[in-house]
Fold this sequence. Notes:
Layout: H1 8-32, H2 38-57, H3 61-72, H4 80-83, H5 95-119, H6 123-151
Amino acid sequence: xxxxxxxxxxxxxxxxxxxxxxxxxxxxxxxxxxxxxxxxxxxxxxxxxxxxxxxxxxxxxxxxxxxxxxxxxxxxxxxxxxxxxxxxxxxxxxxxxxxxxxxxxxxxxxxxxxxxxxxxxxxxxxxxxxxxxxxxxxxxxxxxxxxxxxxxx
Length: 153
């Protein structure tokens, strides 16, 4: 495999590591903030990352089929993540900045998994990466919709 992954297990390990990093990132922000809106938001993001990890660790034929369904379901892209300026993580950040931070993080994960799907020489791994990319894209879309409904952009 050209991208450095030799087995399906290595791909899963990589994806699990990414989900763990994201979980810790959001959990740390939640622990550091006193903001009554940001704390539960960051905790929800952290929980979602743990759910992704659990899904990856228990992947089976049904999970792969669900992933395939996500691949063929294209998400609309509001483009907010691309338009907004980068923000630095800060426990006292404004709610809108927290949403921007999260949508950009999901967008980066989407781009990474999409690239890995594209360069993978193994069709099964490409499908797995596309499924992971779509999962991240769905999260970004949910955050973008929330941002748009609150801030009208």
